[in-house]
Amino acid sequence: MTKSEMAAALNQRSAWLPGKRVKIDFGTEGVIMLDGTGNQVTEQDGPADTTIKVSWEDWQALRDKTLDPMTAFMTGKLKIEGDMSIAMQLQGVLAKLGG
Description:
Radius of gyration: 12 Å
CATH architecture: 2-Layer Sandwich
Oligomer: single chain
Strand order of the largest sheet: 3-2-1-4-5
CATH class: Alpha Beta
Structural class: alpha+beta
Number of helices: 4
């Protein structure tokens, strides 16, 4: 799945937290914005309540369950900036990807 396909799938499944803006920053691969204020998922960068920084490669490993989220966080492969409680709520939202 490409980043654009992922954004489209998340948008189709209304995968955002109401009233919150969460950015998944893949570095050189760009971003996906889960915009719960505009009720949409886009690839547009902008301000967010919480930013999750992770490489696209590590994101794929997380999705495929070959990398444990806590291990990724503790080893610095996954970084969270902003409201940590919002990041914790994302597990259910991202489960909508069906992966």
